[in-house]
Amino acid sequence: MRCALLSLLMAAAPIAMSKRVELNWDIGYLQANPDGLNQRRVIGVNGKWPPPVIEVNEGDILAINAHNSLDEPTSLHAHGFHQVGTTYFDGVPGVTECGIPPNGTFTYEYNTTQTGTYWLHAHYEAQYTDGLRTPLIIHAHKEPHRYDEDMVLMLEGWYHRNSKDVLQQLLSTSEYVRNLPFRPYMLVNSHGGSDLRRTTLKFQPGKTYRLRLLNVSATGMVRFGIEQHEMYVIEVDGTATEPKLVNNVQLSVGQRVSVLVTAKNTTEANYAYYADIFTDIQAGVERAVLPFTSIVEYSKNAPLVNATDKTSTVGWDFFEDVDLVPIDKQPPPGVNKWVPLEARTAIFDDRREHLSFNNRTYEKPTVPTLTSVLTTGYQAFYPDVYGFKSHPIILDPMTDIEVAIFNMDNNSHPFHLHGHSFFVYRRGAVNNDPAQLRNSGPYPVRRDTITIPPHEFALLRFKADNPGVWLLHCHMAFHAEQGMMATFIEDPYYIRNGTNLPKEYSDNCKQMGIPLAGNAMGHNGLDLPDEPKGPLPLTGL
Ligand SMILES: *[C@@H]1O[C@H](CO)[C@@H](O)[C@H](O)[C@H]1NC(C)=O
Ligand SMILES: *[C@@H]1O[C@H](CO)[C@@H](O)[C@H](O)[C@H]1NC(C)=O
Ligand SMILES: *[C@@H]1O[C@H](CO)[C@@H](O)[C@H](O)[C@H]1NC(C)=O
Ligand SMILES: *[C@@H]1O[C@H](CO)[C@@H](O)[C@H](O)[C@H]1NC(C)=O
Ligand SMILES: *[C@@H]1O[C@H](CO)[C@@H](O)[C@H](O)[C@H]1NC(C)=O
Ligand SMILES: *[C@@H]1O[C@H](CO)[C@@H](O)[C@H](O)[C@H]1NC(C)=O
Ligand SMILES: *[C@@H]1O[C@H](CO)[C@@H](O)[C@H](O)[C@H]1NC(C)=O
Ligand SMILES: *[C@@H]1O[C@H](CO)[C@@H](O)[C@H](O)[C@H]1NC(C)=O
Ligand SMILES: [Cu+2]
User: Fold this and answer.
1) pTM, entire model
2) Four-way CATH pick for 7-139: 3.40.50.300, 2.40.70.10, 3.90.180.10, 2.60.40.420
3) Residue identifier of the C-alpha nearest atom 10 of ligand 2
4) 102: CA distance to ligand 1 center in Å?
5) What pLDDT shows up at residue 101?
6) Which among 59, 66, 186, 194 has most CB atoms closer than 10 A?
7) For the chain, what is the radius of gyration of the CA atoms?
């Protein structure tokens, strides 16, 4: 009421009213068959799947009362949100909370100070790949680019098997079992296969569309293109960019890209669009493309322009994000602390395949890292308090950090940092081939997820200006579970001084029998005799 009155009084200068958007989410199991090929158990919300797309306006408070009706823990993570002052709403079990136990609840409250395209997903094991994921759009009060309509295209490589089965296969001690084939099937907005009509994009002549592309897969890389239509990139991972003409967009898991597409003037023809999975974890970079074709429709009865490989107007050039320039031109920070991380896959001494940073494979501590920060006094400054297996890295307040990730694998990996958008400062080949070196301009693009191709590295910079506990991990759901994660503990003093945990935090820990204080094992100080050290690399550390 007050809002309406105010805006009447100030009719000449429209003011933005922020509101509280409250959603009650009962998270439970359902059956679904999104591609018409395979009925399976999925995880949905309030008896429906897929979970609803969430759209709010900049400045709104989004509160989600999550109730867990599953038979295992769950949690919700708002991918790309910086969570300034609210690290305990970041939604990572073992890191920023204990997880929501079966029949438990947790209210996540998000102050939407950022704008653009994000997504909300479970962060318990590889659970989001069972369908607990949805786009989360924050409309800016003043969008920097003009367009007539906004469309969300959630792209996803969908497995016909439960995430736990796939993970069990990948973590088998048998090489034969590990290499048994499994493949993802392409879904667009949770539809695929024989359900193609439901993935049609309806265009009207002359209009300009903002297509928000999100990759919410478990593994792999997706690329997107439309026959005979130009696309201009205007946003990556919530950072608005100057328009850049591209012939296709490539996204790895976790990434988002908005493009502007201007429709044709006539309704004489319809056009094919493609959303192909072009690399995946199992067969490395040479894997055959898994093509997906659907329709940009101007008129129901118009003929379809569906080109062959030879006549297609869609080029598949490498999508170079280092060349993008943000609208708010900011210079990158310098380097006070250098964090080199070598990403590898190897068989460890438990005969299983693990993924690692610097040969350390992550396992979540018994006590969430945030609990340890808050309850171990001055010893919160000792990395050892958080346990070897959580791969803790302490960041001092307001220092300039450069994370250098060297991908020593034959697979691409998409690396995601919580709590920050990093400047993409440089990319290049690990073998030092200068021809492959790519520097950013003076105002590098900022992202929260970066694809690093095999045997390449990236230098990522950010300022440690956001106290909290933030995970860095490969966003391929299974790789993260196989250990490719590390924990940044940014400004432990400030976290301890400035954090009031919501009551549900300790309720949930108690229900799960997780200690409310202490180091990674729930003991005092550096007393960690029962800490699991392994598995270790076969060659030793
Ligand atoms: C679930 O929690 C509610 C409220 O705390 C409680 O009343 C109910 O008995 C619980 N149900 C089960 C199956 O534990
Ligand atoms: C949300 O963030 C803005 C900007 O930092 C701040 O002014 C405001 O007080 C915050 N609101 C809440 C409810 O935390
Ligand atoms: C999403 O990313 C994954 C891995 O990074 C990739 O394999 C997959 O093809 C991508 N899918 C789309 C639709 O971009
Ligand atoms: C629309 O038609 C006009 C006039 O024929 C032409 O100049 C313009 O380029 C067309 N626009 C598009 C997007 O095809
Ligand atoms: C377009 O052509 C490809 C290759 O011939 C075919 O597989 C696909 O089904 C066609 N798509 C549509 C929408 O007709
Ligand atoms: C990790 O192990 C590999 C293989 O044993 C070795 O070549 C490499 O130097 C190790 N890296 C680090 C950072 O310890
Ligand atoms: C990468 O591929 C090469 C060539 O096929 C092979 O020799 C090497 O062992 C592979 N490396 C890894 C880490 O899988
Ligand atoms: C610690 O918190 C208190 C109360 O909020 C505040 O006054 C003080 O400035 C904080 N100290 C530091 C070093 O942040
Ligand atoms: Cu990976």
Assistant:
1) 0.91
2) 2.60.40.420
3) 111
4) 9
5) 98
6) 186
7) 23
